[in-house]
Amino acid sequence: MPDEPIHIAITVRVRRPYVAEFERALKDFAGWSLAEPGAMGVQCLYPPPGSASTEYGILRSFANAADRDAFYRSACFKDWQARIAPMLEGQSTRRQLYGLEAWFRDHKEPMPPRWKMAVLTWVAAWPVSMFVSVIVVLALGRNIPRILQGALVAAGLVIVLTWVAMPFLVKIAHPWLRPKRSADAK
After folding, report:
1. Contacts by 72-79, CB closer than 8 A, 24 or more apart
2. Contact 14, 22 (CB under 8 A)
3. Alpha-carbon distance 186 to 180, whole Å?
4. Of 97, 123, 141, which residue sits at a domain end?
5. Pair 92, 120 in one domain
6. Which of 5, 75, 109, 172 is the most exposed place for a label (fewest CB within 10 A)?
7. pTM for this one?
8. Is residue 21 part of a domain?
9. Which of 48, 65, 64, 66 is nearest to 56 (CA)?
10. Helix (H) or strand (E) holding 94
């Protein structure tokens, strides 16, 4: 859809001697790039403290595809690329994200259809939300404010889906999500 927000994930690997300089450049870029037309947000993901990783992520959101395309053609973006090029190991990767794809991503295979991702997420979310609701009421009682109960249920739902239910369901539903094509079977 041309008027839907667009979300882009960029991953870069920084050469170790340039980490501090890259982090300063990333902070500057994140700030002034938001002034570009159609820019709706940017989040910078840093390696965990104490890890040996030098991989950084940048999540960008745009109002629509036209704004995304204009941003990547802009002087702002081209200046940024020129500034960080000597600091990087290899090329950055850039890909568009779709709501549920994080759970279903497999570098070796294409994404399953969105409808299958939605069905499997519903299969997980419905019972998990009911289970978490019961746990919250048992733990805190029925007299907690509804807004707090809703927040705790949502937090529990996200936690269980992210680390338990979805990894398990995606694994067992793999043949349904990504059936072998007839050409593969020959």
Report:
1. 74/36, 76/32, 76/33, 76/36, 77/33
2. yes
3. 10
4. 97
5. no
6. 75
7. 0.55
8. yes
9. 48
10. strand 93-97
The whole domain housing 154 covers 114-185
CA distances from 88 to 31, 67, 77, 93, 94 (A): 20, 26, 16, 12, 14
Q: One-letter amino acid identity for 155?
A: A
**CB burial class (10 A; 0-12, 13-18, 19+) of residue 165?**
buried
Q: Is 103 a domain residue?
A: no
Given this model, what pLDDT does residue 184 score?
45
Number of domains making up the chain = 2
Share of the chain above pLDDT 70, in %: 89
Give the mean model confidence (pLDDT) for residues 7-31.
92
Cα gap 176→56, rounded to integer Å: 33
Same domain flag for 138 and 72: no
Asked whether residue 105 is assigned to any structural domain, the reply reads no
